[in-house]
Amino acid sequence: MDTNPKSIVNYPIVRFVNLGLRGSTLAAKFALLFVLAYFLEPVDVALYGLIAATISYSLYALGFDFYSYSTRELLGSPRAQWAKLLRDQTVFFVSIYCLVLPLLLMVFASGLLPWSVAPWFFVLAVLEHLGQELNRMLVAMSRQLLAGVVLFLRSGIWAFVVALMFWYSEAFRNLEFVFLAWAIGAFLACLLGVLSLRSLDRSCLVQEVDWRWIFSGIKVAIPLLLATLAIRAVFTVDRYWVEDIAGTEVLAAYVLFAGVANAVVAFLDAGVFVFLYPRIVSAFKESNAQAYDKGMLALLKQAFCITLLLCLAAGLLIHPVLHWLGREAYSQHVGILYIMLLAMFIFSMSMVPHYGVYAMSKDRYIVGSHILTLFVFLLAAASLASVSPIYAVPVALCISFAFMATCKLVAYLHLKSRLIWGKLSGNEATSL
Questions:
Q1: What residue ranges are annotated as transmembrane (predicted)?
Q2: Closest CA relative to residue 282, chosen from 412, 420, 141
Q3: pLDDT band with cut points at 50, 70 and 90 for residue 121
């Protein structure tokens, strides 16, 4: 299979099928969320939301944001060296596991989550991280269709199974079954992802592990990790904060509506970002100003239109769904969804200048904006908590994401104005 980004992304059928897989994955997530809300008590829905958010956050510590370095390296390296790069990255991940997994015990020692879910937490955290990294590598290699299949196994099909079994029998209506199905789906995704890499040229594996390359990646990844941990903390702290200031019942509604709003970003990622950002990075590395500008313009147009349509659809379709659920705990707090959709729209638009800056390898601007965004979120949420405990966190998300989008846009425009295109060292454009 041709893995040239310029050729693969131009096939409409690949994009159409990938969108179908992403749509099926999102439909499965929706089905899972609404079935959980229908059959389980709000306290169980709230616990599921806390566990899912904490696992999601732990993935960044396990991955160390190393992919942000390795992806650019992969795109700029001969295909004959890809297997070696992936092998060296795996060595790094194993080392990180030995360090981070024991530290994650603090989540349970501090009482944030009950010890009863600890075994599931660690199994799911490892499988989710491996699946995430394999998905990213497949995207970087422009194998978006296979990446979509891996993602569907990891996040979609098992959720459909859970939803069907919940309807079928009361015996399956518990979180233990949810975690079991999740683990099986994530394992199958990892298995398919690993098997798909067998087609790579493995002759380069006779070379020794390049520790210098790994340490160079660590130096690049550390500031990006701080940035990612800061922005992802917003998506984790929000749930714990809602529980603290508004109670478990409001948290259950927040988990449901946040899942709907976050699906907008997830769909945008699979339908737009994964196809366009490799092209933008490659164009910058090749000093192709026309292709870079064309890619950024396409990113802006598609991100705006798709995000707007999805937000409007979610806001309209939620009402018949809430009527079907028939639980006042959710219907009386539907205002949370509208604010969350606005927050996700702003977040999605911030990703346009984000990828422009990322392609230029000017990561310090991304780092700074993410860290400042966390502080803005904490300040806004604390200020609004006494005014409106229910809406304090969603409104704080809107404020902080608007701040982040402004920072990234200013950084992008500044760097773009100073950009010099030409065949420089490494055949890349540079910005002064």
A1: 21-40, 46-69, 90-111, 117-134, 146-167, 179-197, 209-231, 251-277, 298-322, 334-353, 365-385, 391-415
A2: 141
A3: very high
> Domain count of the chain?
1
Structure pTM? Answer: 0.73
DSSP H helix total and E strand total for the chain: 18, 2
- CA–CA separation, 360 and 356 (whole Å): 7
Q: What single-letter DSSP state applies at residue 297?
A: H
- DSSP per residue, 209-239: P-HHHHHHHHHHHHHHHHHHHHHHHHHHHHH
How far apart are the C-alpha atoms of 177 and 36, rounded to whole Å? 12
> Shortest CA distance to 348 belongs to which of 298, 405, 392?
405
Average pLDDT of the residues in 349-367: 88
Tokens of 123: 């199994």
Cross-strand pairs, 53? none
Instruction: Report which DSSP code applies to 156.
Output: T
Residue 239 has pLDDT above 90, yes or no: no
Cα of 376 vs its chain's centroid, Å: 21
Question: How far apart are the C-alpha atoms of 432 and 428, rounded to whole Å?
Answer: 13
Q: What is the pLDDT of residue 177?
A: 94
At 25, which amino acid appears? T
- Compute the distance between CA of residue 369 and CA of residue 363 in angstroms, rounded to an integer: 10
Other Cβ atoms closer than 10 A to 112:
11
Query: Cβ contacts of residue 189 below 8 Å, gap of 6+?
Result: 127, 131, 134, 135, 150, 151, 153, 154
Task: Report which of residues 97 and 247 the model is more confident about.
Answer: 97
What single string gives the DSSP state of each residue in 50-85?
HHHHHHHHHHHHHHTTTHHHHHHHHHTS-GGGHHHH
CA distance 332 to 393: 17
* Phi and psi based region of residue 338 (left: phi greater than 0; alpha: psi -120 to 50; beta: remaining): alpha
Distances (CA, A) of 186 to 150, 209, 223: 9, 28, 29
C-alpha angle 332-338-343 in degrees, rounded to nearest 5: 135
pLDDT on residue 224: 76
Domain that holds residue 95: 5-431
Report the alpha-carbon distance of residue 183 to residue 176 in Å, rounded: 11
Contact 31, 160 (CB under 8 A): yes
Within 207-362, where are the H helices?
211-246, 248-268, 274-285, 289-325, 328-331, 335-359
- 253, 335 Cβ separation under 8 angstroms: no
Pairing label, strands 419-420, 430-431 = antiparallel
